[in-house]
Design goal:
Keywords: Cell membrane, Membrane, Transmembrane, Transmembrane helix. This protein has helices spanning about 10-25, 30-40, 40-65, 75-80, 85-115, 120-140, 140-170, 185-195, 215-245, 245-250, 255-300, 320-335, 340-365, 370-390. It is an all-alpha fold. It has a single domain (about 10-390), classed as Amino acid/polyamine transporter I.
Length: about 400
Amino acid sequence: MAKDSEGSLGFNAAWSMAVGGMIGGGIFATLGVVIQAAGEWAWASFLIGGLIALATGHSYAALTVESGKPGGIYRFLRELDHGYAARIAAWVLILGYTLTVSVYAFTFGAYLANALGGPAWLPQAMAAVSIIALAGVNLMGVGEASTLEIVAVWGKLVILAGLAAFGLAQWNAGELVIDQPPGIVGALIGAGTVFMAYEGFQLLAYDYDEMKDRETLMPRVMPAAILTALAVYIAVALGTPMLIGADAVIEQREVALATAGRAALGTTGFVAVTIAAAFSTASAINATLFATARLARSVAEEGELPGIFGKTDREGVPYAGIMLISAVALALALVGGLGDLVKGASVIFLIVFGLVNAIAIRRKVGRAWIAWAGCSGAALAAAILLLHQLGFI
């Protein structure tokens, strides 16, 4: 397998991969779901989720640098001689990432179909096209994938920042209130729901071998990417309801930001936000496929996944893993509902976040108090989300 020992991802490309993995699902796919759960406290849900993600990012970076190898929680468990748990974690993560790819594709299809009009099957068709096209980009290799990521991320950040600023300039706190206010408990439920929106930063743990000056880069790029996503989420969660009202965001959850863009700048705003949504979800599909296929390759090379995941071309691209993950994600995007996909993925990543922080505590890497905060926060959020899903709160 060919691999550049110096890596090919610098700060901008690695940051773009992480931000693309987060924001693609984080705001276009989850805003309406979170506002329905938290109402006027949706901004607090994104803040709580971001703080837990920051703590977990600290643990991820410290553990990855100590290990010196890609693999994330799979690698960390292997190094603790928990081989069976590591194998289960690898399968769970691949499922979680496949779910997130399906969410991004679902959202991509919804926004494009909303803009184009047409028959009822068009959103599903657009979702399928997005997965197939981005799988093709990944099959071309890291250079093409990372270049696309940089362009897509900067484009969507400019548009999202403009939309948020336009809404915040028309501040009216009453627009944040929904018909059935959930209260402060809603913020905690929303914080549990939102975790799929923050999972993208951990993709860097699987891209570790692709980075330049990786031991220095990893501890810098993870918090930078998480803070970027956190700031964008809070700004958009506060600004969008100023334009169309929180209840409209819930009603039109699949395309709420495009509706807000129309309210802000008419057709120009609608088109701009639709383009941002397409770029955002496409970059998220790209980043997630890129890293998940490399995770599967690493695990397969150690005999813990079927050998097909380890098949690569002459350039070291794990083509078989990319195609398998893409095929399953495509099927889920065609049959799944947005809310269920988001919440299912969030539960998976909350469990992973909590375990990573617990491993950092056990191995005594990084700052212990940060790992304890991340572990406690993830466990609490997971418990609240599960209790909510079971109807107890």
